[in-house]
């Protein structure tokens, strides 16, 4: 046992080419955890059949096999880091739920990792991965299960019709499933739902490409040849849906048009609310230009000096971190989601409309401070990995024995069974039939992978699913 390398399996809810946080951040986490070679790391990502890939992956990118997608993922990563990572990639069967705009797992995805390698499981978005889980209990399979809370689901739900009632139900179920399946919970910021015995720590870093851009800006600032490092004004980039800060930003601009006379703002994003955002921008007296979304590392963004981000739905906003890494001034709301960023001299927060006007006006007239070496490190994935290892207590893994299952397969319960075990048993039973799963909100046919998914992933085809077709969930 002493000679065995600790194995960390990182399960996440999305994969490239879908450019979402749970596709990108776990990929970097896997690479940097494996960097020094002291541990084995496996990144476990969803595999979608072709019809589901077409629903979620951008630019008509699709894959005929998991190995083809793995090549794509590794190539994307290799273009952004300076070392050759040694982690492995495994796929679990999944489907895309159109109504939830989410990829959801199918079957017992813990089976992807052999029992002899089941040391540590990192569940990126544990509530997302465990709501519909039916199979071996994560705490039984792994010695240590760490949940990392990425998303402020409750804030999004509150904005829906009857949102406050829905949010109460979701809050309860999230707490239930995360408690059942995770030993530790890491919340990226206090903007997330609170969980018992959780710790708040930002264990995310910035794509190294942005730090390189910032380094070049510092060199330009220090050159002393009269060249301006930043020649453009203010901008914002984000998925173009109202809940991603556009509603707040356009309201701030509308309410303060007189005070902000002469301000020009460029908005970049694509999404279902693009037309409405453009229409609202045109009604302003200020110059607000709207452009389609593009990669934040694109050269078009390098010369902007001020990043305006009034969003309060993010947990730790990736684009804010990227803007700081590039050396820009960030003007953002004084909100728990931005607590990590307050340590940086170029992060300027505001409490109200007046504060937004003052911070924005000052940012446009002043130059950003040069990023210090300490600030650059704090934004990096090296620092994020250090923070993760510190709060995860991985040294305790081999000292911890895997928890005993509820009499193997949850077959029965003794009177002395802990309440948590009873709770886990109830969840197992509730998610064990198609009818109850559907009532819970699961995708049709997600109890076991269908024949198509089994063939594509090289899995044995369960007798119950032979000849089954995959109904795409468009409800």
From TrEMBL:
Localization terms from the record: Plastid, Chloroplast outer membrane
Domain Glycosyl transferase family: 235-367
GO CC terms in record: chloroplast outer membrane
Annotated SUPFAM superfamilies: UDP-Glycosyltransferase/glycogen phosphorylase
Domain of life: Eukaryota
GO MF terms held by the record: digalactosyldiacylglycerol synthase activity
Keyword Transferase: yes
Keywords: Chloroplast, Glycosyltransferase, Membrane, Plastid, Plastid outer membrane, Signal, Transferase
Protein's name in the database: Digalactosyldiacylglycerol synthase 2, chloroplastic
Organism, scientific name: Populus euphratica (Euphrates poplar)
UniProt lineage: Eukaryota, Viridiplantae, Streptophyta, Embryophyta, Tracheophyta
């Amino acid at each position: 046992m002493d000679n065995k390398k600790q194995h960390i399996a990182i399960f996440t809810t999305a994969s490239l080419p879908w450019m979402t946080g749970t596709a990108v951040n776990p990929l970097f986490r896997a690479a940097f955890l494996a960097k020094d070679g002291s541990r084995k790391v496996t990144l476990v990502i969803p595999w979608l059949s072709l019809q589901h890939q077409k629903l979620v992956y951008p630019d008509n990118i699709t894959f005929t096999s998991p190995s083809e997608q793995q090549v794509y993922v590794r190539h994307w990563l290799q273009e952004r880091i300076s070392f050759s990572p040694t982690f492995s990639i495994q796929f679990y069967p999944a489907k895309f739920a159109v109504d939830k705009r989410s990829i959801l797992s199918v079957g017992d995805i813990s089976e992807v990792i052999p029992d002899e390698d089941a040391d540590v499981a990192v569940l990126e978005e544990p509530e997302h991965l465990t709501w519909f889980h039916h199979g071996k209990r994560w705490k039984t399979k792994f010695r240590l299960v760490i949940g990392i809370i990425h998303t402020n689901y409750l804030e999004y739900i509150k904005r829906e019709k009857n949102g406050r009632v829905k949010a109460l139900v979701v809050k309860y179920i999230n707490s239930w499933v995360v408690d059942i399946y995770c030993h530790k919970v890491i919340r990226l910021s206090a903007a997330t739902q609170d969980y018992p015995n959780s710790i708040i720590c930002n264990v995310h870093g910035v794509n190294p490409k942005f730090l390189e851009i910032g380094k070049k800006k510092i060199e330009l600032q220090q050159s002393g040849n009269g060249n301006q490092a930043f020649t453009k004004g203010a901008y914002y980039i984000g998925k173009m849906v109202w809940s991603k800060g556009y509603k707040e930003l356009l309201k701030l601009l509308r309410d303060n048009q007189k005070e902000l006379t002469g301000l020009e703002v460029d908005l970049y994003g694509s999404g279902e609310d693009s037309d409405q955002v453009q229409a609202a921008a045109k009604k302003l007296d200020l110059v607000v230009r709207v452009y389609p979304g593009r990669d934040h590392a694109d050269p078009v963004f390098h010369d902007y000096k001020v990043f305006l981000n009034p969003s309060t739905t993010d947990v730790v906003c990736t684009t804010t971190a990227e803007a700081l890494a590039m050396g820009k001034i960030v003007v953002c709301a004084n909100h728990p989601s931005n607590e990590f960023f307050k340590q940086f001299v170029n992060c300027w927060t505001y409490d109200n409309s007046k504060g937004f006007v003052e911070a924005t006006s000052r940012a446009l007239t002043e130059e950003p401070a040069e990023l210090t070496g300490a600030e650059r490190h704090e934004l990096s994935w090296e620092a994020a990995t250090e923070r993760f290892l510190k709060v995860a207590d991985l040294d305790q893994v081999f000292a911890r024995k895997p928890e005993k299952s509820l009499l193997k397969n949850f077959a029965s319960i003794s009177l002395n069974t802990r309440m948590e075990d009873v709770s886990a048993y109830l969840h197992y039973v509730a998610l064990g039939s198609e009818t109850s799963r559907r009532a819970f909100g699961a995708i049709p046919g997600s109890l076991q992978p269908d024949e198509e998914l089994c063939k594509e992933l090289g899995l044995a085809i369960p007798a119950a699913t032979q000849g089954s077709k995959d109904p795409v969930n468009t409800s």
